[in-house]
């Protein structure tokens, strides 16, 4: 073979070698590039899952803290001081502070700065959305600049609000609790891992609103709704990975995202794609250069052999460098795991533990001796159960293991786990795409201890409320007993011939005692409202009759002052409605009483007209002194009156309108007022009262034009009743006895329940008036024993106990009716007629 052929074949061999090596180099570069990108995508997904668990934990912990404070909120107040609350928050770095606002949006408590108190946050989305919400769920708001609500905005500082809804005893909106989250807490998590890969982490609300951004303040960042996550993936796909183009602030990235399970928050992790491919480019360039040099140096068999040897050496060096990179990444990952305050564990697709940190080992000391890489998770679990690691497994070991393995292999919501060391951990687990499991163990021991302390404090607060209610009920009984004597004697006195001056003195005494009785009733009602124990009924009643009864009760005072009462009833007002007639009458009577009190001359009118749906509006208008504009916003607060001079001139407890507002809200309605000083006032309430469907037309009754004459006892046309009065108070005996004798009845007395029972056994009576609290034997026990012996005589409880639950107990014991002290002559006469046997009527 001549030289030309040798050159040809040598050139052909060189060309073939170049083509083969070039193809292998290109194939190797493509494979290595895909492997780099695939590994980076997997890393981004793992980081996303890990950070999603931590973020969800932080938001759940914050929500739990806010929920635990709800029992201490009553009527726009919170029974925890700011200093104590701030001290409890020092273990929660994600929370900058907590504030509470009432239903009008006024901040009533803040742990950050007193400048927050009194600020109006009614326009914040966390308040507006909770006010409109139909379900009790936490709401994550839009980030805002500044350190807090009441402080001046600070450049580069922002907060993230999270709120829960406050409701009153009837489920109505009563305000919000707002936690001001610190975005820096979320930005500084996992910095060691993120810095290693030049990664960024962003938190975005489900609607595209930025919450925590890596490259800018969230409050200054435009909506992310136009990014691929929201335009290509959500809502049909709530996790995924894609390549994002470079922007002014970020390079080209491999982006992984995931929606948290419990909050509408998207976690977005971005890895620098340019940095990921830098190592690949260096390897490819090095391989290309080596191949080119090898081809140029091939001049013969020795050259080819040298080239092959160098190629093998280059490939070996590449493999060694790849292994060193993998070792460095693994070392960095292990350091990041050890820097975590939470326990971390990773199981492969065969459910063997391949990674865990020392915090995880410390949480399970009784299993630490066999805890090593490669051990099956089930084996470690069974060893822990046998060693008593899990107190909840005692006596049900196999059931516990079966349940725990199911939760581990099919992760769902996080759950809490009690350990033998006395500590509590929250377990969060997430499956990876290759079938592995990533787990976190978060120490919540202090949170559980705070929950127990809050529960104990709530129990003590309930006990204090009970004690207060019983104390007020007892004091009411003690005050009403002598008041019964005063009002009873005054009532009898005014029925006798008196000189004008004497009658004036008697009227002053009666008015003063009635004022004291109203104050006492206000205090009792407000106490029960504040404790959430005022029962609300729902039953059909005659609306027209209820309104007229309220007018009748106020008519005497209006007539005395020369004020004209008017009643404007809409023609289409339903006759029978469903609701609480007693509470409605109490509200109307309260507003009518105020109108008459603050009107010296002119008119007080009551109007009623249907509104949309089942709503009916009632309005009380007067021509009285009116109310100054600056007083109107606080008029319905407790102990508030228009001015101190008003209180001095007209008296009162300052609770009436506060009670009216609470009662209106308790029956599902609203209340308001329009007024100007010197021009009168108009108070209105709007209450849902569904009509009872009836074929009979609703009656339309006109208000009588002339006031009824003063009360005079009617003539007893039938035989006198034989009445037994069981009363231990001598004055009350004389009062009730005198009233009965004036009505023409025969009276016998018993000083306690035991003597009353003996008298009932010894002889028969037509009616028995039974006091409740008496020595030796009370009225309830005496009635029960009488009923047990077959005594069917009507028994009327005459008591100073006004609580509804007490009166229900009396009726259950066998008493026919309840008459509340102080007793009035006309009410006593009506009660006796209602109890009188049919053959005596």
Structure, explained:
The strands form 7 sheets. Strands 3, 4, 5, 6, 7 and 8 form a 6-stranded antiparallel beta sheet that branches. A 5-stranded antiparallel beta sheet has the order 10-9-13-12-11. With 841 residues, the chain is of the alpha+beta class. It has 22 helices and 30 strands. The model is unreliable at 642-652 and 695-712 (pLDDT under 50). A hairpin with a 4-residue loop joins β3 (95-102) and β4.
Which keywords apply here?
841 residues; alpha+beta; 6-stranded antiparallel β-sheet
Q: What's the helix and strand layout?
A:
Blueprint: H1 3-69, E1 73-74, E2 77-78, H2 82-88, E3 95-102, E4 107-110, H3 125-132, E5 139-140, E6 144-145, E7 158-167, E8 173-181, H4 183-187, H5 191-196, E9 200-205, E10 210-212, H6 228-233, E11 239-244, E12 253-259, E13 265-272, H7 273-297, H8 301-339, E14 343-347, E15 353-356, H9 358-363, H10 377-386, H11 397-409, E16 415-418, E17 424-431, E18 437-443, H12 445-494, H13 500-530, E19 539-542, H14 543-561, E20 564-569, E21 576-579, H15 581-597, E22 603-610, E23 615-622, H16 644-650, H17 656-666, E24 670-675, E25 681-688, E26 722-726, H18 730-742, E27 746-750, H19 753-762, E28 767-770, H20 779-788, E29 795-799, H21 804-812, E30 817-820, H22 825-835
Parallel strand pairs: 20-22, 26-27, 26-28, 28-29, 29-30
Antiparallel strand pairs: 1-2, 3-4, 3-8, 5-7, 6-7, 7-8, 9-10, 9-13, 11-12, 12-13, 14-15, 14-18, 16-17, 17-18, 19-21, 22-23, 23-25, 24-25
Helix pairs in contact: 1-7, 1-12, 7-8, 12-13, 12-18, 13-17, 14-15, 15-17, 19-20
């Amino acid at each position: 073979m001549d030289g030309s052929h040798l050159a040809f074949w040598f050139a052909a061999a060189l060309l073939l070698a170049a083509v083969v090596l070039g193809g292998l180099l290109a194939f190797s570069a493509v494979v290595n590039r895909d492997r780099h990108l695939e590994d980076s995508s997997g890393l981004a997904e793992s980081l996303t899952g890990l950070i999603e668990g931590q973020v969800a934990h932080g938001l759940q912990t914050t929500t739990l803290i806010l929920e635990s404070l709800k029992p201490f909120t009553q009527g726009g107040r919170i029974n925890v001081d700011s200093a104590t609350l701030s001290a409890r928050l020092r273990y929660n770095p994600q929370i900058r502070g907590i504030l509470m606002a009432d239903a009008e949006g006024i901040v009533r408590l803040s742990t950050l700065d007193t400048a927050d108190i009194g600020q109006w946050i009614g326009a914040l989305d966390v308040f507006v959305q909770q006010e409109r919400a139909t379900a009790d769920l936490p709401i994550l708001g839009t980030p805002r600049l500044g350190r807090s609500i009441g402080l001046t905005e600070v450049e580069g500082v922002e907060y993230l609000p999270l709120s829960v809804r406050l409701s009153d005893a009837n489920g109505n909106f009563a305000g919000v609790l707002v936690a001001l989250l610190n975005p820096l807490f979320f930005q500084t998590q996992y910095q060691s891992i993120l810095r290693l890969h030049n990664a960024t982490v962003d938190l975005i609300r489900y609607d595209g609103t930025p919450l925590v951004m890596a490259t800018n303040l969230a409050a200054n960042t435009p909506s992310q709704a136009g990014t691929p996550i929201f335009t290509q993936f959500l809502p049909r796909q709530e996790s995924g990975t894609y390549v994002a183009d470079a922007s002014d602030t970020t390079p080209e990235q491999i982006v992984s995202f995931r929606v948290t399970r419990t909050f509408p928050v998207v976690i977005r992790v971005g890895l620098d794609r340019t940095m990921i491919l830098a190592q690949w480019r260096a390897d490819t360039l090095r391989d290309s250069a080596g191949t080119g040099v090898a081809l140029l140096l091939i001049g013969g068999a020795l050259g080819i052999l040298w080239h092959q040897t160098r190629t093998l050496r280059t490939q070996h060096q590449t493999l060694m460098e790849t292994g060193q990179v993998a070792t460095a990444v693994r070392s960095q990952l292990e350091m990041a795991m050890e820097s975590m305050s939470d326990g971390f564990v990773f199981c492969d697709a065969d459910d063997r533990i391949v990674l865990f940190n020392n915090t995880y080992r410390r949480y399970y000391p009784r299993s630490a001796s066999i805890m090593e890489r490669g051990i099956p998770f089930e084996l470690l679990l069974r060893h822990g159960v046998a060693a008593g690691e899990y107190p909840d497994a005692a006596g049900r070991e196999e059931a516990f293991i079966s349940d725990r393995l199911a939760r581990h292999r099919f992760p769902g919501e996080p759950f809490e786990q009690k350990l033998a060391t006395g500590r509590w951990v929250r377990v969060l687990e997430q499956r990876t795409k290759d079938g592995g499991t990533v787990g976190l163990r978060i120490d919540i021991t202090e949170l559980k201890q705070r929950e127990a302390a809050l529960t104990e404090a709530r129990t003590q607060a309930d006990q204090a409320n009970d004690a207060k209610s019983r104390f007020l009920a007892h004091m009411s009984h003690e005050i009403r007993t002598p008041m019964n004597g005063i009002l009873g004697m005054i009532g009898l006195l005014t029925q006798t011939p008196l000189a004008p001056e004497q009658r004036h003195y008697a009227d002053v005494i009666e008015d003063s005692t009635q004022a004291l009785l109203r104050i006492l009733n206000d205090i009792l009602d407000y106490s029960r409202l504040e404790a959430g124990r005022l029962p609300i009924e729902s039953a059909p009643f005659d609306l027209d009759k209820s309104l007229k009864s309220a007018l009748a009760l106020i008519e005497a005072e209006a007539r005395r002052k020369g004020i004209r009462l008017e009643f404007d009833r809409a023609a289409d007002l339903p006759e029978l409605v469903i609701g609480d007639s007693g509470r409605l009458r109490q509200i109307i009577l309260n507003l009518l009483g105020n109108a008459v009190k603050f009107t010296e001359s002119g008119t007080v009118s009551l109007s009623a007209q249907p509104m949309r749906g089942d709503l009916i509006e009632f309005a009380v208008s007067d021509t009285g002194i009116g109310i100054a504009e600056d007083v109107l916003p606080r008029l319905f607060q407790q102990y508030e009156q228009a001015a101190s001079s008003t209180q001095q001139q007209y008296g009162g407890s300052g609770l009436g309108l506060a009670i009216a507002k609470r009662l209106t809200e308790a029956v599902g309605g609203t209340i308001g007022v329009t007024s100007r000083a010197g021009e009168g006032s108009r108070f209105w309430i709007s209450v849902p009262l569904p009509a009872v469907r009836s074929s009979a037309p609703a009656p339309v009754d006109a208000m009588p034009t002339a006031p009824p004459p003063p009360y005079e006892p009617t003539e007893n046309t039938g035989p006198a009743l034989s009445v037994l009065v069981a009363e231990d108070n001598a004055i009350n005996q004389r009062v009730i006895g005198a009233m009965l004798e004036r009505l023409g009845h025969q009276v016998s007395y018993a000083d306690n329940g035991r003597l009353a029972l003996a008298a009932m056994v010894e002889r028969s009576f037509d009616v028995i008036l039974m006091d409740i609290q008496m020595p030796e034997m009370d009225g309830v026990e005496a009635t029960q024993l009488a009923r047990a012996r077959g005594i069917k005589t009507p028994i009327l409880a005459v008591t100073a106990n006004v609580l509804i639950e007490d009166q229900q107990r009396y009726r259950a014991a066998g008493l026919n009716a309840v008459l509340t002290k102080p007793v009035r002559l006309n009410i006593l006469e009506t009660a006796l007629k209602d109890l009188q046997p049919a053959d005596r009527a």
